[in-house]
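Thread title: Can someone regenerate the structure for this chain?

I was given the following input by a collaborator and told the matching structure tokens would be attached. They weren't. Posting the sequence so someone can regenerate them.
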Amino acid sequence: MKSSDSPSIGYHFFLICFSMQTIMSRNKIKILVVSENLPMIDQHSGDRRFVRILCTLSSHYEVTLFIKNKKMLFNEKLQRYRDQITDFGIDIINQNSILATLAAKLYDIILFEFYKIAEIYLNHIRRFYRFQLHTQVIIDSVDVHFLREESGKKLGVILPEVVAANKIREINTYKKSDAVIVVTKEEKESLREVGIKNIFIVPNIVELYPRISKDRNKEVLFIGGFLHPPNVDGLIWFAENIWKKVYEYHPDARLTVIGSNPTNEIHALANEKGVEVLGFVQDTLPYLDRAMVSIAPLRYGGGMKGKVNEALAHGVPVVATSFGAQGLDVISGKHLIVADEPEVFGDSLIYLLDNPEQAQAIGVAGQQEIAIHYTPMAVESLLTAMIQSLHIRQNNTLSYLSWRLFVFIYHCYTFCRDSFPKLKNGYLREEKFTKSKQTAKY
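Best answer:
Regenerated them for you:
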């Protein structure tokens, strides 16, 4: 903003004195959601959960989305993803400055997706927004990263010093918020042990699909985005240690691999007998319908696995490791099959391929379990209860006036920054904190 564009002191005094009608009309809770990237629901299971959360919130509250990666807002190839968001009645802010966004509207809740995006902005917001005491800050962990990284450390795929440093950063960021969202009970207990108090569980959210009983080919399905290292590690482990045995036992079996951004290692699996690597597909429904079994052979991870939720929601029987079944309240042998040793995993998979009726029974039981806890209707009550418990219903006039004070200070800040060039590189540089975090090596 140019200094000439900054509203005068008299302008702010006028608004403070004569905006009572606006004050009294603030009935709907306003939520600002801050994300690194535009969510793409056919690319990542985490994005599907995120969009379903946005959709649920927007049906009750006024939701605005701030995307840090502004290039995604002008990429024509991503228009359909932007439309998916705006069709829910959610505004996507075309504003580079988070502070300018906060100065434009009084928000009751600020929700960050991932601790790393909160780490970039939270100190800066607290510094300038301290007058708006009623605004609550929530961080959605998506999965508690340090738990996933600690499990990877045990396999030697993540350096111990990196895990330790990231854990400190993550916990410290959570402690600066008013509440943290986790996906599982185990994550909630882990955060409590490190001093995080206000924690809410919001699991993965999936739609149920009927599964038609019919003869199916012996097709084994893996779904997972390959920007996520546990997916790459797990599938390669499966191919090297399990699939060859399954294929020798069933030469007519096929392994279909679906997921965005497959690495060279994943593409190379297509050279193995019975393996087809499709990469990204826009709709997984036809593949889930035709698959006989879905697998989640993860050797490390955290949170809850969207691939498992999705398969169970479609009634597809699943064979998973303990990490693949992580966070689900399921019984092995009833809702799915859990196997950590390669031999046991392979035997379980062969058993389901040999016994389609038993495979169908497990798929049905798994789908029934999903219906109880993970459908949009089941999770909606969790989200609304969380927002209502965090929303501090203070005097509307006091809240509005304190926000107007923030707006006044913000415009003074921009006036000084733009009028005195020497200050641009010092304390008054708005992106000072942001840039230092962006260049940090994660």
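The chain has two domains: 3-205+379-438, 219-374.
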